[in-house]
Design goal:
The complex is a heterodimer of chains A (482) and B (501).
Chain A: H1 5-11, H2 13-29, H3 37-61, E1 66-68, E2 73-75, H4 77-100, H5 106-125, H6 129-147, H7 154-185, H8 190-199, H9 204-221, H10 229-236, H11 239-246, H12 248-264, H13 278-298, H14 303-328, H15 331-354, H16 369-372, H17 374-388, H18 394-409, H19 411-439, H20 455-473, H21 476-479
Antiparallel strand pairs in A: 1-2
Helix pairs in contact in A: 2-3, 2-5, 3-4, 3-5, 4-5, 4-11, 4-12, 4-15, 4-20, 5-6, 5-12, 6-7, 6-12, 7-9, 7-10, 8-12, 9-13, 10-11, 10-14, 11-15, 12-14, 12-15, 13-14, 13-19, 14-15, 14-18, 14-19, 15-17, 15-18, 15-20, 17-19, 17-20, 18-19, 18-20
Chain B: H1 6-24, H2 26-49, E1 58-66, E2 71-77, H3 79-98, H4 106-125, H5 129-150, H6 155-183, H7 191-198, H8 203-220, H9 229-236, H10 239-264, H11 266-292, H12 297-318, H13 321-353, H14 358-361, H15 366-369, H16 371-384, H17 392-406, H18 408-433, H19 439-448, H20 456-474, H21 477-486, H22 490-499
Antiparallel strand pairs in B: 1-2
Helix pairs in contact in B: 1-2, 1-4, 2-3, 2-4, 3-4, 3-10, 3-13, 3-20, 3-21, 4-5, 4-10, 5-6, 5-10, 6-8, 6-9, 8-10, 8-11, 9-10, 9-12, 10-12, 10-13, 11-12, 11-18, 11-22, 12-13, 12-17, 12-18, 13-16, 13-17, 13-20, 13-21, 16-18, 16-20, 17-18
Classes of the chains: A mainly alpha (482), B mainly alpha (501).
């Protein structure tokens, strides 16, 4: 077999850039030196940013080669777009990190962000079960480390441990599911699997495999009832790590999920009227996520936990988009995931800046933010309202395209979309609670000092807010890609 | 005419400028806001000057926006929208004059205020459901902050309740519109296109979708029993926000019912007509009786708004040409009069006496301390209870006659509401301004601490609104000549023909 390694090298230039960047960042930081941690952070995040920008340029430059390396990679439009999206979100996360981090090992932090990003980009292009699993684990292992990176706080260690245990179990589930699929179809490549599945009848064994895979993805995507790790991790992890877990990881995960379910397992989707397959299970998980998270979020007094429950709610809406993707194509899910990612990166960015000088746990820690920093308040206003789905921000268009795709599908998916629309009215309540603290309530005495926003972080936040407004006003920029 | 879309852009630009100006000085922000509102009003009046009434919507802008969804940025006006645009301009200008005394975070106040106004202008011009919805939501969010930051009694509760009701209503609307879009197989969100798509939907689904959309809009119009947000919200809101809420925002709901819900589903509307009419009548009478026993002056006005908006909904429910025209006229009339009443109660009286309890006000000889406020309130009150010569009279009369043509019983029961309105308005005038006889003793005391005089800004705001209600009261033809031809459009004819029981 003539393996086209040269072709592969060209197509995977973005991943190469990321890995080389990570290694260079580590190497530069390696020798003992008299530099202060801030300088070290600046140097390594500059290297990281250069690596990500190089990866972005290479990725956009590559064209659309389609299937590569005998079908292991599929560089179609979805892969390209989601690779660019993941890189962009990682770059914004890096911007926030550079502005705010007080960690003792900045170079490692940046390097691990780059490794995680390489995992995300591979998830975006994978079309083979083995590569998909490896990419997912590369990303996940990096994220476990990032979650536990703040060694000064026990919560961070707790977050990492919980995330690792849940993630490890879900990896086992996924691998078990994958191996069953391989056993049934005799292939690990998605087109081949789809081909075989279309010819065989559904067997109980296949159902076990599907449930295994869905459970694993439920864990990774933090969908109910597999969401229990999310609030603790979002709460304990350093803010930039939470931002990456909530944004880029979601986008890459849903891209992989879409590719696995529709082109790969589309033949055994079943339908929502009760025929066995994965659609009813995904529908169940979606409804559970939307209901549970929106109700649980009402009782939260911690900003990060609130954002975690909001993430679960959005995961439910995204799963609804996955259900509809069979007829509507991937564009609604992609748009939703990308714009949701922007808004969460921004929200965690604001938290990261506040945490430079004081805690930002409870909602009341945001009190009086508008007098402390009008810039942060303005950005937070955009991010939270986008999460709530208020036009003309991108979050609204995301909801609109996903729900209209689901309603077009009709039947149970339509009812789920109506449920999701009604729940968005409940969601506005807890989002307004955040904005109420920031804009209405005056600052309490110990935390009333003005906040200095580091220029890099300010730049990253402004870019994020600008993108949310821009994509809200011109959604065709993303929707038109597919 | 083609300058009308600039009302939206000018308002949003003004909102931005007011925010910037507010960081330098409060008075700069005020003048920016006033200039913006006046510019908006002038643009609407200029358009009214060159407006030729007709049944068709006259397109102002029509460009593709989101090709993938078939959304077009399509703005158009007919006589009905123009009436409400003029109202928006007047109410916005008056509201700014009455909030001249906002000292705290002035720039932000006017910025949110103008953003709300921009959204309202946008709703009244949109003929694409997506665009309409976007503007509708832009008008909702600023309300929360206007009330929660600058409000009074129980403001955070009132603000949250109001916004959640509005947003829940808009969620119903969104659900209904998306359902119609998907089920009807439409390729875009133009109202005409959705109307055609809606004919492909089965009758039971049509009724369900109509119920969603109508209910969603009617919540914002204060329809019984979903009106409870209105009094609490109005009472908690700062004066200018109450003026806008009662004056134009509640009209957004009624306008949505009239422009979107009815023409899209004339058949379903015909089936639901009696329910809507009885809910409207219940609102008129129930809110009237509640207003009669309120101890807080602002609650009286708050419930009176719900009662008067009941007439608008009744006119819509009756759906005869006269009733519909009356409903639009009543929207204009109530917008102006409610603005005046809230201005007197919230700004002229409360900011000086620092009480809104009728029991406390009755002890002050307000007619002597604040003669201007008393005169304005008496005139506005008379206009509100439908005295000939003021705009309330032709409006409520057309609604009642139009309703009589559809169903005499409705008109008879609703007429009780007029009597109740007379009772609570006269009671408020009597108790608040002309005190009890025991007041004579305390008047000496009051003269020792004279209340601050009525400012020029307040006077001009009050005169502006009084002039508007008198003008429309004396020459309702001016507005009716715009409104009646608009009802000749095929969309409204379907409603009127299908709607007569």
């Amino acid at each position: 077999m003539n393996t086209p390694y040269g072709e592969l090298l060209v197509a995977l230039r973005p991943e190469l850039c990321l890995v080389v960047g990570a290694l260079v960042a580590l190497a530069v930081d390696l020798p003992k030196s008299s530099r202060s941690p801030t300088q070290r952070l600046q140097i390594s995040s500059t290297i990281g940013a250069i690596a990500i920008i190089a990866a972005l340029v290479c990725g956009l430059d590559a064209g659309l080669p389609g299937q590569l390396f005998s079908g292991v990679f599929n560089l179609d439009m979805l892969a390209q777009a989601s690779r660019a999206g993941v890189l962009g979100l990682a770059l914004l996360t890096l911007g926030i990190t550079a502005g705010t981090s007080r960690l003792r090992h900045p170079a490692e932090f940046v390097a691990i962000i780059l490794f995680a990003t390489a995992g995300f980009t591979l998830m975006a292009v994978a079309q083979q079960l083995l590569l998909a699993f490896l990419a997912l684990e590369l990303a996940s292992l990096s994220l476990y480390v990032l979650a536990g990176f703040d060694k000064t706080r026990p919560e961070s260690a707790e977050a990492a441990l919980k995330y690792f245990l849940f993630g490890g179990v879900s990896a086992a589930f996924m691998l078990f599911g994958f191996s069953l699929i391989y056993g049934i179809t005799g292939s690990i490549e998605l087109p081949e699997i789809a081909h075989r599945l279309a010819m065989t009848d559904t067997s109980p064994l296949l159902m076990v495999a599907l449930v295994m895979v869905l459970v694993a993805f439920g864990f990774k995507a933090a969908a109910a009832p597999f969401h229990l790790w999310a609030p603790d991790v979002y709460e304990g992890a350093p803010a930039p790590a939470s931002a990456l877990i909530a944004s880029a990881s979601k986008l890459a995960g849903f891209t992989l999920f879409l590719r696995l379910l529709w082109p790969g397992l589309g033949a055994v989707s079943g339908n929502l009227t009760g025929t066995a397959g994965w659609l009813p299970v995904v529908a169940l998980i979606a409804v559970a996520s939307m209901l549970l998270s929106n109700l649980a979020a009402l009782a939260q007094s911690n900003v990060r936990r609130l954002l975690a429950y909001s993430a679960i709610a959005h995961a439910g809406a995204l799963l609804l988009g996955v259900i509809a993707a069979g007829t509507s194509g991937p564009s609604p899910v992609f748009y939703y995931a990308a714009t949701y990612g922007l808004a969460t990166v921004g929200a965690f960015g604001v938290i990261a800046v506040i945490e430079r000088t004081g805690p930002c746990h409870s909602l009341s820690d945001l009190a009086g933010l508008r007098t402390r920093s009008p810039l942060l308040t303005g950005c937070l206003f955009v991010f939270i309202l986008s999460l709530a789905g208020i036009p003309p921000l991108a979050g609204f268009v995301g909801k609109f395209v996903v729900f209209s795709a689901a309603l077009k599908l009709g039947g149970l998916a339509g009812w789920m979309a109506l449920l999701a629309i009604f729940l968005s009215a409940i969601a506005l309540y807890y989002y307004l609670l955040i904005l109420k603290q920031a804009l209405v309530v005056p600052a309490a005495a110990p935390t009333s000092a003005p906040l200095r926003v580091p220029p890099v972080a300010a730049f990253a936040l402004l870019i994020t807010a600008g993108l949310i407004v821009l994509l809200g006003l011109w959604p065709s920029l993303l929707l038109g890609l597919f | 005419m083609n300058l009308l879309p600039w009302t939206i852009y000018v308002s949003f630009a003004g909102a931005f400028l007011a925010l910037l100006a507010g960081t330098r000085s409060a008075s700069a922000a005020r003048w920016v806001a006033l200039a913006t509102a006046v510019a908006g009003t002038l643009l609407t009046l200029l358009a009214a000057q060159s407006f030729t009434p007709g049944p068709a919507m006259q397109t102002l802008v029509d460009v593709p926006w989101i090709g993938e969804l078939g959304v077009r940025y399509h703005l158009a006006v007919d006589g009905i929208s123009l009436t409400l645009l003029v109202l928006t301009g007047l109410a916005a200008t008056a509201g700014i004059l009455f909030s001249w005394n906002i000292e705290e975070r002035t720039g932000e106040f006017f910025s949110l205020y103008l953003a709300l106004i921009g959204g309202v202008y946008g709703v009244f011009m949109s003929v694409d459901a997506f665009v309409l919805f976007v503007f509708y939501e832009i008008a909702i969010v600023p309300k929360y902050f206007l009330i929660a930051i600058w409000g009074s009694t129980n403001r955070e509760y009132g603000a949250m309740k109001l916004v959640l009701y509005s947003f829940a209503g808009s969620a119903l609307v969104l659900a209904g519109l998306l359902w119609a879009y998907a089920a009807g197989g439409a390729h875009g969100f133009g109202l005409d296109e959705l109307t055609i798509a809606a004919t492909h939907i089965s009758h039971p689904s049509q009724i369900a979708i109509f119920a969603l959309v109508f209910l969603g809009f009617a919540v914002l119009a204060g329809m019984f029993p979903f009106h409870t947000w209105a009094p609490t919200g109005h009472v908690a809101a700062p004066t200018a926000a109450s003026m806008l809420l009662a004056g134009v925002v509640m009209k957004l709901g009624a306008y949505g019912c009239l422009r979107v819900a009815l023409p899209m589903f004339p058949g379903a509307f015909a089936a639901c007509q009696p329910i809507i009419a009885w809910l409207a009548i219940a609102g008129i009478i129930y809110a009237g009786f509640i207003a009669l026993v309120q101890e807080d002056f602002k609650f009286v006005i708050g419930y009176s708004s719900v009662s008067h908006m009941g007439f608008v909904l009744l006119g819509i429910a009756a759906a005869t040409p006269l009733a519909l025209a009356g409903a639009v006229l009543q929207m204009f009339s109530h917008g102006v009069i409610a603005g005046l009443l809230f201005a007197v109660v919230g700004r002229m009286v409360y900011e000086r006496t620092h009480t809104r309890q009728l029991a406390a006000l009755t002890a002050m000889p307000l007619h002597r301390l604040l003669p201007f406020a008393a005169v304005v309130f008496v005139l506005a009150g008379l206009a509100s209870l439908g005295l000939p010569g003021f705009s309330g009279f032709p409006a409520e009369l057309s609604i009642l006659i139009g309703t009589w043509q559809a169903k005499p019983l409705w008109a008879l029961v609703a007429a009780v509401g007029i009597v109740v309105a007379g009772a609570f308005t006269l009671r408020a005038i009597q108790v608040a301004f002309f005190g009890s006889t025991g007041a004579r003793a305390s008047s000496v005391d009051a003269h020792a601490h004279p209340l601050p005089p009525i400012t020029l800004a307040e006077k001009s705001g009050a005169l502006l609104l009084l002039a508007a209600t008198l003008f429309v009261g004396l020459k309702p033809d001016v507005l009716l000549n715009w409104i009646v031809p608009a009802l000749q459009s095929p969309a409204f004819q379907a409603v009127i023909k299908g709607g007569t029981p």
